[in-house]
Amino acid sequence: MPLLKSTFFPTLPFRNSHFNTIYRAMFMKENVTYNRKRITTWDNDFIDLDFSLVGSKTLVILIHGLEGSSQSKYILAATSELNGEGFDTVAFNLRSCSGEDNLLLKTYHSGKTEDLHFVVNHVLDKYDHDNIIIVGYSLGGNLTLKYMGEFAETQSHKIKCAIGISVPVDLASSSKEMSSFKNKVYMEGFLKSLRLKVLEKAHKFPEYKVDKNKLFKAKVFRDFDELYTAPVFGYLSPEDYWSKASSKPYLSKIEKATLLINSDDDPFLPNKCYPIKEAKVSKKLYLEITKYGGHVGFISSFLAQENRWLESRIINFIKQNI
Predict the structure, then answer these.
(1) Selection from 194, 175, 150 nearest residue 241 by Cα
(2) Is the pTM of this model over 0.90?
(3) 12-169+248-320 falls under which CATH superfamily?
(4) Gyration radius from the chain CA atoms
């Protein structure tokens, strides 16, 4: 599809990528009341789904990013705005992210689409919606895009479209970009949370022999993926994991309308995460590259009423495809 021209143009302070990235998480206030449903998985674990239903025939599945949850500000904002437009929502808490540790040594990773497939089938079986939409942010966006390509031939006709926001479609290059000095503060924040989870897993599962000294010294994602993600999920190496979990190879297989919104100034994303060539030859992949926005930011100004560009964009795309 032709690349989409973006209308997003923020006021001056928000044209700084780092300012836009941190502003939503630190200063935006959102208020949503969820109804939590815990579902048992095929491998004797659980997934917590947080529903916000308004009696719609359209359900939007929202998937957070790395170490996020249904309480992430961008999930709360989307839930509030989607409900206001008459759409039901369910926030999919990835394993270990709902406030309670999951039961298995395995948690989640960037390409674990079998969990998304399970959740989609659950809502199809248990709820009476005519339209299912999937919206993923960052890591959740990679899951969304990979799922739309990987399961293209077997998806229910009720899945109408999907949207990915700030998506690292090429995990290897994104992991390298995240290792740069400019992202040191973000990296340490992610690793602090991830280290604590792995320590808890090592305590619960003595057979998992993690090198705690290396874990505490981990400085970048490669260090963490070498200690946990690759061995626990059966990958040969971090590079093997990044290659197999990336959504970029699956973009050409997408058969339903899918929108990818990535900001050109996203501090987490290198050039390989802007799939311009893939979008140009695809009939269903729409790529919108904003000039500003940071990573899952897209805040326009200090005025609250002007800060719903991203949510409005999501809603408009949904309305065009149901």
Answers:
(1) 175
(2) yes
(3) Alpha/Beta hydrolase fold, catalytic domain (3.40.50.1820)
(4) 19
